[in-house]
């Protein structure tokens, strides 16, 4: 993200953007004469855009929600099938390891 689109100062530790907040005029007038009051820095709440939307912009197309939903459903279905197969395999291995107790 460029500084042109998101101006401000960044935290040197976490790289989050900081917003400059002016000190209220009443606090500045009641303070004793001397050095300028410190500037208060507040952490700005910022979340990045969804990855699919960012990649769609770079690919030169718009995010198609219907296609994305179908793709996500196919992935979920595949994961569920893989989990079921794994559970069956583990059950078979567990049954094979258990030997019947002799009387």
Question: Can you characterise this structure?
Answer:
The protein is mostly helical and 103 residues long. It folds into 2 domains: 1-47, no CATH class; 48-95. 47% of the residues lie in helices and 11% in strands. It has 3 helices and 3 strands. It has helices at 25-30, 51-59, 65-97, and strands spanning 9-10, 17-21, 40-43. The protein has a 3-stranded antiparallel sheet with strand order 1-2-3, with no helix packed on it. Strand 1 and strand 2 form a beta hairpin. It starts with 8 loop residues before the first strand and ends in a 6-residue tail after the last helix.
- The amount of beta strand, in percent, is 5-15%
SSE arrangement, N to C: EEHEHH
The geometry reads as: elongated
Class from secondary-structure proportions: mainly alpha
Instruction: Count structural domains.
Output: 2
What's the total number of strands?
3
Largest sheet, in brief, is: 3 strands, antiparallel
Distance between the termini: 73 Å
Radius of gyration: 29 Å
Estimate the helix proportion, in percent. 40-55%
Strand order of the largest sheet: 1-2-3
Primary descriptors:
103 residues; mainly alpha; 2 domains; three-stranded antiparallel β-sheet; 3 helices; elongated; disordered N terminus
């Amino acid at each position: 993200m460029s500084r042109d689109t998101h101006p401000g100062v960044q935290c040197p530790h976490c790289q989050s953007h900081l917003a400059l907040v002016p000190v209220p005029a009443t606090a500045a007038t009641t303070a004793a004469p001397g050095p300028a009051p410190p500037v208060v820095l507040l952490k700005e709440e910022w979340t990045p855009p969804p990855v699919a939307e960012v990649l769609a912009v770079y690919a030169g197309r718009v995010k198609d929600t219907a296609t994305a939903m179908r793709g996500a459903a196919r992935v979920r279905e595949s994961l569920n099938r893989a989990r079921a197969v794994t559970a069956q395999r583990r059950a078979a291995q567990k049954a094979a390891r258990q030997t019947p107790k002799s009387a």
